[in-house]
Amino acid sequence: xxxxxxxxxxxxxxxxxxxxxxxxxxxxxxxxxxxxxxxxxxxxxxxxxxxxxxxxxxxxxxxxxxxxxxxxxxxxxxxxxxxxxxxxxxxxxxxxxxxxxxxxxxxxxxxxxxxxxxxxxxxxxxxxxxxxxxxxxxxxxxxxxxxxxxxxxxxxxxxxxxxxxxxxxxxxxxxxxxxxxxxxxxxxxxxxxxxxxxxxxxxxxxxxxxxxxxxxxxxxxxxxxxxxxxxxxxxxxxxxxxxxxxxxxxxxxxxxxxxxxxxxxxxxxxxxxxxxxxxxxxxxxxxxxxxxxxxxxxxxxxxxxxxxxxxxxxxxxxxxxxxxxxxxxxxxxxxxxxxxxxxxxxxxxxxxxxxxxxxxxxxxxxxxxxxxxxxxxxxxxxxxxxxxxxxxxxxxxxxxxxxxxxxxxxxxxxxxxxxxxxxxxxxxxxxxxxxxxxxxxxxxxxxxxxxxxxxxxxxxxxxxxxxxxxxxxxxxxxxxxxxxxxxxxxxxxxxxxxxxxxxxxxxxxxxxxxxxxxxxxxxxxxxxxxxxxxxxxxxxxxxxxxxxxxxxxxxxxxxxxxxxxxxxxxxxxxxxxxxxxxxxxxxxxxxxxxxxxxxxxxxxxxxxxxxxxxxxxxxxxxxxxxxxxxxxxxxxxxxxxxxxxxxxxxxxxxxxxxxxxxxxxx
Length: 666
What we know:
The protein folds into 4 domains: 3-190, Cytochrome c-like domain (Cytochrome Bc1 Complex, Chain D, domain 2); 203-303, Cytochrome Bc1 Complex, Chain D, domain 2 (Orthogonal Bundle); 321-417, Cytochrome Bc1 Complex, Chain D, domain 2 (Orthogonal Bundle), CATH 1.10.760.10; 428-516 and 533-665, Immunoglobulin-like (Sandwich). Helices cover 25% and strands 15% of the residues. It contains 16 helices and 17 strands. The strands form 2 sheets. It has a 15-stranded mixed β-sheet that branches. A two-stranded antiparallel ribbon has the order 1-2. A hairpin with a 3-residue loop joins strand 6 (474-481) and strand 7 (485-493). It is flat and about 80 Å long. Mean pLDDT is 89; it is low at 1-51.
């Protein structure tokens, strides 16, 4: 057997054994080019067409300061690693820390595919990658966790990284425990034990897998009360209730075994529940057996000799304009009360349903089909309408009331409310050059010919008061200039607008759905006395962020509102009072408002059917070069965004944020 045919982990172990025999510390030896060539650490993550390199072991400093003391990283060992009597306990406790602090980005599977994994750049590290952190000394992981993105060497652009520095948020003991967990769990994924071919599903194996894989979210007894439960929305399923949201059976009926198996395999899109397809088929069926044992309904069903009656999906009929028109009428009557007339979750009855404290979350935004739990194909939509969604306010559309053709009509209309696929992410926003005046209002038809750019947003989970589940998860940006003025168009979906905005801007809400004809009466309804309009406690707001100055070396301010050496310029629009504040910041909480006489930005906002639209306009150059961004053509200008959904209590550091993007003026 040649050296190159050995598994990587075997090579790593042989190499470390050689170092030990030679009496040479790995950190010091890794500084030599030959050693770096053998065990170099260069991890590339594909995100769209982007790739990012992470630091190698040779980039690790000799020592770091942690809470006022110097920690020498060379030969630093995990003090909990040698405590074999408590190793399993410490790994488990490290898992609890991980599922409170880390899984939003790095994911349940430690593969960098957490809920926020696609929303920040560079993306979270994949600990299961070929050359990952678990193949390096634990001192490397200690350095990266303690110092995070801001502690990276300059060549790795620390101002771009969303990895928090945990030194002031976790104790050293917690850091060492989470390292134990990461190394243990990632090794299981990276170097799985070979499966026995004749292994059969069993209740005991299911219990073992649940405690090992599922309990951090669903709890040891499956009641949905694991360590991560209060950090999840929707919250983990309580299996003792026997409710499975996605089923092939009628509303109120228990799911089939295949339904449970499919959810374990596929996960739940847009939630913290991942798919577990990497587990063997027998292991997944073992989990099915165990999950069924947690609720009484399955045993009762079997004891009574009942059989499932899955709902069958007929072949979809051809799409017709008549079907589309009928579907629109049916949608407005039966669906718009929750989903709104444009499907943006802003229906008239929505506010009576949503209660985030009790985990009664917003109806699905039908304009974002990539977030649909079951999927967005015609047959998947048909099944959702026929079965409803257990434990939610989404009812079933009974065949006693709606025939198959009517369901297909609704499906046809729903699919017109969204783009056919998720917008492609582009890191560079092109600012189109035009002649004449720039469009200054959202409804100007000139915007129709301008390219749109999709900007994902994640919660501010890095520092201070965090926001795990922001009300706004993306914005859309367009921009034009005429060699004198730049105009930036933005829109974002928010199902609850600030009511005071109606006094200063155009507002159009989704009306209550019309009553069916047989329930209508001829007598006009008496209008209730209108209450005075009041502003929300916290306004809805959006800030566009630029560096004040552009560094020729490419160095930028920290993406989270700048830093003490490199300030940022922010254009912050808010719903009350409706207008823009021109601000500067040197950190997450270090914001100052420029004097009113310096405010040069014009704004125009409106709200229509669950969507804010905003246009910001300013001259390319200003006299205040010390505080204002100055725009130049053919130069890449970093740009980032902050959004606050005031109705959800978002204010200050509780906000949605983006990474740095770039804009370039034609």
